[in-house]
Amino acid sequence: MHKHEQVISTSAEVHYRTGIIQPNGYVHWRRKGRMKHNLITDAGLNEVAAREWAKCFEYGAIGTSNSPVERSSGATTITAVGATVTASAPYFEAGDVGRLLRAATGQTGYITVFNTAQNVTWVPTGTDFSAQAGVIYYVNRTALGTEYRRTNTYRTTGSDNVSIWNGPNSEWSLQRTYLYPVETAPVTIRELGWSWGTTGTNLFGLDVLPGAGDALIAGQQYIVQVLLILRFLPAASTPAPNVGTNWNTTGNISVVSTNEAYSVAIVNSVGATVTGGDGLEPGVNSGARKISLYSQSSYALPGSTNTAPACPTGTTVSALAMTLSAYTPGSFTRTKSVLMGVSEVVGSWWGVMISHGTVTPCVAVKFNAAQSKDNTHTLSVSFRFTWGRRFPAAVPLCHLKQGVTNSSGICEINYTDCAGNAQTFYRNIGSPVVTTVDMFCIRIGTPVTPLNGANYLNNDTPCG
């Protein structure tokens, strides 16, 4: 038997903003309308193994408790040596077991044992670090402290509900705007979350509002806008090591198409999930996507696009649909695989893909040298999908500005940055060209690729 496995990764982050609709219809966006990063729970990441990303936040929830979702060390520093983390002053508590600790320099790990208020055992994902600040994230939470309402009713004005493809970052941004009933008595909302279910302890993400929360009186209506950003990697042709058994699979790998018809479920203008594309969805396998081989030696991996590029010539599809591996909670990993029989795909092959039949590749691998399969061996091919949360950038989202489409079909954004400097950036929003663009949160990043005298912004985030 020949074996082959490659890895595809998806990182996710969620941002939200809240507003109060007055009886006359005017929307007062709270905190100047700025999007705030929130916590994705472990329960939410586990649910990705069972459904499309877009279905994980079909319901919004609000509550009246201010139960924390994270705890900063403040002036207290933490130091990690191996499996032990030590704090300079009392910081840890018994309830931290199962929570995620992240150091200022980015090392993360789950706390497994509470030893003392200044000492815990953890499972690190990075190197040791010296004294620095840290944050404990309550990723094991699954519910609001005191849930008040839950809804899957969406406001459908303008770009309230939308899916936007950001090509340079290989990202889909999926947005929904939850609309809650008109209040009949005063209430203060202090926490909120999003979920895949109508009731229960099943929150994909949650947060506690800053300060005193959002106070509403009779006649007002609460509105919450949530943006899920998914980044699919590798977004360009990337060297891949030999992961084969009896096949030398050294070569390159790339996501090829994130088109919604083949690869990813998206959110439409009324907030509904549009399914059909599941080639890059780790928890779904409709059977329409297959693992295939191709014999075109000149095929060059095009990198991530939102189009539906043609498959290489000589593409042969396995007669069997992919199978999903069993999921282990907390692993955030799942495999799609196929076993090709002795009489299948006999020949010489230059690469392997997940594709929509012989029409559109979702992800592809190009070998450095052709590999052969004869009629006396089977071939097992697996693509391993991993996913996780992406933490906020060091520089926060800091400015909102209206974008317009210029004569070149590029979204042009003119604004003043956080330092008071005039800036012009362009954002290619793909095809078809959008002629009106709503607000954008501008994250100050490194300008790249001059265009018409200005630059693209390499890490902008669209928001309502």
Please give a structural write-up.
The protein has 464 residues and is an all-beta fold. The protein has four domains: 2-8 and 232-389, no CATH class; 12-67 and 143-224, no CATH class; 70-137, Thrombin, subunit H (Beta Barrel), CATH 2.40.10; 399-462, no CATH class. The protein is built from one helix and 39 strands. The strands form seven sheets. Strands 1, 2, 3, 15, 16, 21, 28, 29 and 32 form a nine-stranded mixed beta sheet that branches. The chain starts with a strand and ends with a strand.
Summarize this entry quickly.
With 464 residues, this protein is mainly β. It has one helix at residues 42-47, and strands at 2-21, 27-29, 36-37, 39-40, 59-63, 70-72, 78-81, 84-87, 100-103, 108-116, 119-124, 129-132, 134-137, 147-151, 162-166, 171-182, 187-189, 191-195, 203-208, 214-216, 221-233, 238-240, 251-255, 266-267, 273-274, 290-294, 316-317, 323-324, 333-340, 347-356, 360-373, 379-389, 399-405, 411-416, 422-427, 436-442, 447-451, 454-457, 461-462.
